[in-house]
Amino acid sequence: MDPNVAANTSWVLISTAVVLLMTPALGLFYGGLVRRKNVLSTLMYSFCTVALISLQWVLLGYTLSFGPSESGLIGGLQHVGLEGVGLTAGPGETISPMLFMAFQMTFAIITPALISGAFVERKRFGAFVIFTTRSWAHNPTTLRRAFASEPAAASGRFDRGHRRASRRSWTTRTRRSRRSCSRSRA
Question: Of 22, 27, 91, 102, which cross-links 43 as Cys (Cβ 3.0–4.6 Å)?
Fold first, then answer.
């Protein structure tokens, strides 16, 4: 085995374990911010998120995020249920696809767990479960934008020109409001 592959695999494996431990730690953190009667519900939010999102990621999330795509917006269904995702690194790969899937899954888990802090003491557990299973917090389109080698990114479909226009309109609005405030003071 190549020493670089072994080093990369061990590094990503340790990172995966650390990110996975962040979810219960987040539940404990949120538990310290709420009243005593709601501590258990914050821990339930975190552990339920681990179970639900892990199942959702293995069945559909990974293939929609990283599966081969024809349109460039969302992945195909070639890896449903981790079909064809190997345990060993192939030629040109530095970590195994299964380890990469687990690493990305931990971030898919922590995302709704972070959002759960907004639900504490406000919503019932059933509403949180429905929110967690219905929302794709680890949006595949966002991942497609992060990796610019996709056909959609290469064709310019994900350009950021809209941000420049919104910045211009913000500065124009700010200047206009400053002028109107200075006129009203005079």
Answer: 27
Decide: residue 39, CB within 10 A, 0-12 exposed, 13-18 middle, 19+ buried: middle
What is the rounded distance in angstroms from the CA atom of residue 11 to the CA atom of residue 66?
Answer: 21
Q: Could you give the count of Cα atoms lying within 13 Å of 71 in the half-sphere of its Cβ? A: 9
Domains of the chain (ranges, CATH numbers): 3-159 (1.10.3430.10)
Tokens at 143, concatenated: 């991942």
Task: Give the tokens for residue 110.
Answer: 């922590």
Contact between 64 and 74 (Cβ < 8 Å): yes
Continuous segment of H or E residues that includes residue 98: helix 97-115
Task: Tell me the Cα Rg of the chain.
Answer: 22
Q: Quick one: average pLDDT of 101-108?
A: 91
- 117: which DSSP letter? G
Measured distance CA(123)–CA(114) in Å, rounded: 15
Tell me the pLDDT tens digit for each residue of 160-169: 343 344 444 4
| Residue showing tokens 């990305």 | 104
Reduced to 3 states, what is the DSSP secondary structure of residue 40? helix
